[in-house]
Amino acid sequence: MQQAADRESFEARLRGVGEARYHDKHPFHQQLHSGRCSMTQVRAWVINRYYYQSRIPMKDAAFLSRCEDPQLRRAWRNRIEDHDGGIDEGGGIRRWLKLAEAVGLDPDYVASTRGVLAGTRFAVEAYVYFVREKPMLEAVASSLTEMFAPAIHANRIAGLIEHYAFANDGALAYFRQRLDEAPKEVAFGLNYVLDHADTLEKQDAAVAALTFKTDVLWAQLDALSHAYVDPGLVPPGGWDGREGVTAEEVSS
After folding, report:
1. Cα(92)–Cα(78) distance, rounded to whole angstroms?
2. What H or E segment, with its residue span, contains residue 71?
3. pTM for the full model?
């Protein structure tokens, strides 16, 4: 039986997944951040990404529902609060709907999830199912894409401000907030995985879980690009480019 890698080597292996596979390398993100997306494409991204955002607290609630360790529950429940916010204000979901409003979409339409691509739904629901059903170590490891998120958020903020008229502090509040929240989540999640993946088999499973999560993120952008960029084939049920639009004058 092969021996588990040491802690430093295992962490490097995890980080290598992001260097090779994180969705900052997807052509759609490169197009978005460089100002080459039309407003229809930006809005399609906002609509579809909302579905992912809205399912994150549901994913975390599913995780907590089977977590027997109170210390782990105490650390993990902040993730739900970060995304859902309080009864009346706050939270990543509300901030994302502020972005929707800024790009000229009706927030109620976006929150309804009508027009979300089937490919987005399938990818996101696969992630929720993974976290609900897989061993706890793998469920935690799948969250470690957050290790790579601060860089994409910083690039996105800079790119949107430079290239799009809608980009202001209110519109970009979600991304600025995640610059503070994500590192805290990473610190806990990474230490948990490094502590608990004490065999090579467990380390392989953790790497596979993180790889799966990068596939989930990449698949969403593939669906978006196919529908709204090239070949521009919107599947049945996908957003038609008109429903929910409230401000045609918003321009890139």
Report:
1. 12
2. helix 70-84
3. 0.94
Helix (H, G, I), strand (E, B) or coil at 245: strand
The Cα–Cα gap between 191 and 7 comes to 10
Q: CA dist 182 to 149, 178, 179, 185, 227, Å?
A: 7, 5, 6, 5, 30
Q: pLDDT for 50-100, tens place per residue?
A: 999 999 999 999 999 999 999 999 999 999 999 999 998 899 999 999 999
Three-state secondary-structure class, residue 76: helix
Q: Are 95 and 178 in contact (CB under 8 A)?
A: no
pLDDT per position as a tens digit, 157-180? 999 999 999 999 999 999 999 988
**Cα distance between residue 227 and residue 222, in whole Å:** 9
Cβ–Cβ < 8 Å for 79, 185: yes
Helix/strand/coil (H/E/C) assignment for every residue in 153-172: HHHHHHHHHHHCCCCCCCCC
Residues 124-147 have pLDDT tens digits of 999 999 999 999 999 999 999 999
**Domains in the chain with CATH codes:** 7-228 (1.20.910.10)
